[in-house]
Amino acid sequence: MAASLDWLQLNLPRTKPEDDAPQEIVVKAWQKHITREDSFLDMGAYVFCTLDALRTALRRRHVFVSLSWRYADPRIGLLDGAEWLSARPIICRSLGLTIDAKTTLDALSAELDATWHAVAARLPDKPAIQLSENTEGKTELSLGALEKLEEPNSLLQLRAALADLMPRVDMPEILLEIAARTGFAEAFTHVSERNARADNLVTSLCAVLLGGEPATPALNH
User: Fold this and answer.
1) How many CA atoms lie within 13 A of 148 on its CB side?
2) Is the pLDDT of residue 157 over 90?
3) Which of 42, 178, 184, 215 lies in the 20 to 30 Å Cα band around 201?
4) Cα-Cα-Cα-Cα dihedral of 40, 43, 48, 52, to 10°?
5) Which of 24, 35, 30 is nearest to 1 (CA)?
6) DSSP 139
């Protein structure tokens, strides 16, 4: 991951990037997009491939962002050494845990085992729950559909009252107004040319977001 980001930082400003882009992050789904018909690297596809790999690494906590609260390394805030030994009795007491980790883990293991046996014993009495074997020989758990609950009249009346309070505005008009107020469309450019702008880009972009199929070029954020 770090090698790909470093390579992009070095080669993105260049007119002719080097042909030694790291391939470790290129998974099977991206392979057909990375290499063009002339056997050269597709820079736009490689950028998106790297961003996709970075997003996955952030979610799996393989990569940390030092200035972020959500994606920072959680181990930074852990006590260690003498600080932990000093604070451990107070923390364990406040959480209702024993200082001996084995005692706590044994209790949790016993509770989990007892719960599993209780659930397994009730499975034959639950026709909505079935265990079946798939084509690969693995056991799968399937759940039956839940019974439909009728909506009470009070909910129907409240829904109708709220609908009457809402302004009669079409969704395209709302999205165009948001684009005009926030200017979010200015962050989009052509995937092939960084500074190129298409005619009526805002309208075309809003159409794409609404699920339309306008004849617009590919966009890159």
Assistant:
1) 3
2) yes
3) 42
4) 60
5) 24
6) E
Distance CA 30, CA 33 (A): 5
List, as one string, the DSSP characters of 175-195: HHHHHHHH-GGGG-EESS-TT
SS3 10: helix
- How confident is the model over 102-116, as a mean pLDDT? 94
Q: Which two tokens stand for residue 92?
A: 């364990």
Tokens 């923390």 sit on residue: 91
Enter the tokens of residue 200. Answer: 């009526």
Residue 196 has pLDDT above 60, yes or no: no
